[in-house]
């Protein structure tokens, strides 16, 4: 998959819909929100992960790791098309002894963890409809 061909991927339209839903509610998109919107992550599992009852988030995402990785990559490409700015976010869980980082993957590999923690922030006052219109007319990219 490349920046030139990602729009033909079978998950692309679902990611577009999930991103649009996120941007209708807030000025940023999160991979977690996309997985929830796509029906691949249950909110109760997300809360259990945030509370530390699930050791890593990939354990409860209902698709295999290859698809998860593909979705994260498609999300990054689509966010680029919409001119959303990537922003690293730290996910922490509060405990009696302080705050500890939450883990997204079983492996804990840095680039995988960063892909899950990367939020995509809308710049300025652009609307999702404006970005989609620009994208469809070939203005973004």
Please sum up the structure shown.
By secondary structure, the chain is of the alpha+beta class. The protein is built from six helices and five strands, in the order αβαααβββαβα. The radius of gyration is 15 Å and the shape is globular.
List the helices and strands and how they pair.
Blueprint (H helix, E strand, L loop, with lengths): L11 H14 L2 E2 L1 H7 L5 H8 L14 H17 L3 E4 L3 E4 L2 E4 L8 H8 E4 L6 H9 L5
Antiparallel strand pairs: 1-5, 2-5, 3-4
Rg (CA only) = 15 Å
Major sheet: order of its strands?
1-5-2
What is the overall number of helices? 6
Q: What string, H for helix and E for strand, traces the elements in order? A: HEHHHEEEHEH
Low-confidence stretches: 128-141
From the N-terminal CA to the C-terminal CA, the straight-line distance is: 16 Å
Report the principal-axis shape.
globular
How many distinct domains? Answer: 1
Q: Tell me roughly what share of residues is in helical segments.
A: 40-55%
Structural class: alpha+beta
3D structure, described in words:
By secondary structure, the chain is an alpha+beta fold. It has one domain (6-131). It is 45% helix and 13% strand. The protein has helices at residues 12-25, 31-37, 43-50, 65-81, 110-117, 128-136, and strands at 28-29, 85-88, 92-95, 98-101, 118-121. Strands 1-5-2 form a three-stranded antiparallel β-sheet. Strands 3-4 form a two-stranded antiparallel ribbon. The protein is globular, with a radius of gyration of 15 Å. Mean pLDDT is 87; it is low at 128-141.
């Amino acid at each position: 998959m490349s920046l030139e061909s990602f729009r033909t991927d079978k998950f692309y339209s679902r990611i577009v819909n999930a991103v649009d839903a996120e941007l209708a509610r807030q000025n940023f998109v999160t991979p977690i929100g996309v997985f929830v919107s796509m029906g691949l992550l249950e909110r109760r599992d997300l809360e259990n992960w945030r509370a530390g009852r699930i050791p890593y988030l990939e354990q409860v995402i209902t698709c295999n790791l290859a698809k998860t990785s593909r979705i994260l990559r498609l999300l990054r490409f689509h966010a680029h098309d919409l001119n959303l700015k990537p922003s690293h976010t730290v996910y922490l869980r509060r405990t009696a002894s302080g705050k500890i980082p939450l883990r997204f993957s079983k492996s804990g590999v840095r680039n995988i963890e960063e892909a899950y923690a990367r939020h995509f922030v809308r710049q300025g006052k652009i609307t999702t409809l404006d970005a989609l219109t620009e994208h469809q007319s070939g203005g973004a990219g």
